[in-house]
């Protein structure tokens, strides 16, 4: 399930800027704990953003993305009140979706 | 012996001044790169995630008394969170102690929720009880973001705490003879590439005090001021300060009062 | 922690530093003498042993006690005390046992790079680093250096390598307080941070003509 994302979206002159902060450990699978045991890889590998139900951004991620990732991008279109929905899926099959309204 | 040596020292200083000028340009380029990186970090501070967790902890009933922390008095009256962090540490009538945020949170958790503060004091900073403290600190500090730091020791115990903090700041000890002042007692210096705030001055004190709690990108960790101080003492080669002990509150009072009038920028973000 | 110099118990140290301060300030508001009992109580209640970092590290020797009130320590009235402290620190310096000043500069560079040792997260028995780059510019290739201490670029090239120069550098590394009572630099030899061979390697980093510290640099644009 994970912790909630922080999503902010604002429309200006026909362009919507979407900023997403995700809560995720993003373990690379390269690190070892104090006992020398490898910490298993655990990271978001798929992320999708929708604006008013239409997919506007889709990405495949790997273990090189930092812990608690921050993602910002701009899309054409969108207006105040439109619904932004973001979904991530991680390599354990866990997933989370959060929503916000464009301001 | 002493005379010959002091001649050597004078020559040594003169030479280093020349070398410093020659390499000033190279230094500036490195400095610019670091500043650009720090600026890029400002957008999307993951500290917000911890603020959200802290707010939930603040508002959710917990402990033997099944109460939330919403009636906690952080100095501005029960339930007032907005602006409270910018006015801490301060003297509290009910405990008759000068308290920083984290010690005050423990008081509220004990009084309102019936929780035993001991496990919170003793847990490692990466253990769940401390994660609660840090999230709460992130939340409360975020409610003072942009406020002027307003800490002026007035109560005799506040004044005594400031003096003890100043003395703690200059107190040398351990195998390296370090005090806080060894690193934070001169203007414009750095360790490796890390700039060191000059804590006795207003601007430096604000750069330090006004930016913690902070999210540390390289470690992927949220640090409270207590954790910051704890790690300073570790690097100072001192024994470990007890969580929310008077030495840490005294130093906090010294920093906060020196920073008074500057802006609170909490929670911050660090490399 | 080794104290070759006479260790002073905390309260004794306060008594030593007290009179020096009283000469410069009528009513000390915060330094030694202000409220020693409260400060001692605070220290005792605020710190605990962790790993190799024990609370006895808070017990000051005379140098540490004197330098903990920097304003008083720097005042003209304290000149005699400063000289006495410097002389006492100079007396602790152990010169190289075989008369040789220089080791291997490559080893010296590794020691200068390492900041490890003596914290509560360090294990006992492992060799300590010198922490040199934390405060000094040394080899030109290392751009991540601190500025609390002076740049050491061209150290040997500018000074040569006569006996007196070597001696001053050795004393500075072994016990920095022998030359400046309240230097920010740790007393690497005196406090047992670095062993004799490690100090020799650092000396080589500073003085060996082949060390990157001493490579000729082109004209600065």
UniProtKB/TrEMBL annotation, chain A:
Coiled coil segments of this chain: none
Domain Sulphur oxidation protein SoxZ: 8-100
InterPro entries according to UniProt: Ig-like_fold (IPR013783), Ig_E-set (IPR014756), SoxZ (IPR030995), SoxZ_dom (IPR014880)
Pfam families per record: SoxZ
Source organism superkingdom: Bacteria
Name of this chain's protein: Thiosulfate oxidation carrier complex protein SoxZ
């Amino acid at each position: 399930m994970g912790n909630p994302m922080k999503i902010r979206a604002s429309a200006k002159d026909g362009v919507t800027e979407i900023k997403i902060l995700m809560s995720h450990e993003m373990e690379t699978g390269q690190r070892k704990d104090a006992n020398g045991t490898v910490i298993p890889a655990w990271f978001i590998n798929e992320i999708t953003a929708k604006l008013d139900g239409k997919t506007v951004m889709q990405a495949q991620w790997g273990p090189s993305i930092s812990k608690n990732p921050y993602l910002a991008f701009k899309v054409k279109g969108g207006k105040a009140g439109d619904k932004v929905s973001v979904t991530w899926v991680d390599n354990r099959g866990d997933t989370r979706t959060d929503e916000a309204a464009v301001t | 012996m002493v005379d010959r040596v002091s001649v050597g020292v004078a020559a040594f200083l003169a030479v280093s001044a020349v070398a410093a000028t020659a390499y000033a340009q190279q230094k500036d380029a490195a400095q610019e790169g670091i500043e650009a990186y720090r600026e890029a970090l400002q957008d999307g501070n993951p500290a917000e995630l911890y603020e959200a967790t802290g707010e939930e902890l603040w508002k959710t009933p917990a402990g033997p008394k099944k109460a939330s922390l919403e009636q906690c008095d952080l100095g501005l009256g029960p339930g007032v969170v907005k602006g409270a962090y910018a006015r801490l540490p301060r003297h509290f009538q009910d405990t008759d102690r000068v308290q920083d945020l984290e010690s005050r949170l423990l008081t509220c958790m004990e009084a309102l929720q019936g929780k035993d503060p001991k496990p919170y004091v003793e847990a490692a900073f990466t253990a769940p009880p401390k994660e609660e403290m840090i999230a709460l600190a992130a939340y409360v500090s975020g409610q003072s973001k942009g406020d002027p730091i307003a800490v002026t020791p007035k109560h005799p115990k506040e004044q005594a705490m400031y003096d003890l903090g100043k003395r703690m700041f200059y107190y040398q000890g351990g195998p390296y003879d370090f005090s806080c002042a060894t690193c934070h007692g001169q203007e414009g210096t750095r360790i490796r590439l890390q700039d060191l705030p000059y804590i006795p001055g207003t601007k430096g004190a604000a750069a330090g005090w006004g930016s913690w709690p902070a999210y540390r990108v390289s470690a992927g960790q949220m640090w409270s001021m207590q954790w910051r101080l704890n790690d300073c003492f570790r690097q100072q080669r001192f024994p470990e300060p007890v969580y929310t002990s008077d030495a840490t509150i005294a130093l906090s009072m010294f920093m906060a009062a020196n920073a008074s009038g500057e802006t609170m920028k909490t929670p911050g973000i660090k490399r | 922690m080794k104290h070759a110099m006479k260790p002073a118990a905390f309260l004794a140290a306060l008594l030593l530093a007290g009179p020096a301060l009283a000469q410069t300030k009528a009513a000390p508001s915060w330094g030694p003498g202000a409220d020693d009992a409260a400060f001692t109580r605070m220290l005792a209640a605020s710190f605990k042993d962790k790993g190799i970092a024990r609370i006895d590290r808070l017990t000051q020797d005379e140098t540490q006690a004197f330098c903990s009130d920097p304003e008083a320590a720097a005042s003209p009235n304290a000149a005699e005390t400063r000289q006495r402290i410097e002389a006492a620190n100079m007396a602790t310096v152990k010169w190289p046992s075989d008369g040789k000043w220089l080791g291997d500069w490559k080893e010296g560079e590794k020691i200068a790079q390492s900041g490890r040792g003596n914290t509560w997260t360090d294990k006992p028995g492992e060799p300590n680093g010198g922490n040199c780059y934390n405060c000094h510019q040394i080899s030109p290739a290392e751009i991540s250096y601190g500025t609390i201490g002076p740049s050491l670029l061209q150290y040997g090239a500018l000074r040569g390598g006569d006996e007196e120069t070597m001696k001053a550098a050795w004393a500075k590394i072994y016990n920095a307080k022998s030359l400046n009572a309240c230097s920010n630099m740790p007393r690497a030899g005196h406090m047992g941070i670095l062993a004799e061979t490690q100090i020799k390697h650092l000396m080589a980093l500073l003085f060996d003509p082949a060390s990157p510290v001493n490579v000729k640099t082109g004209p600065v644009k």
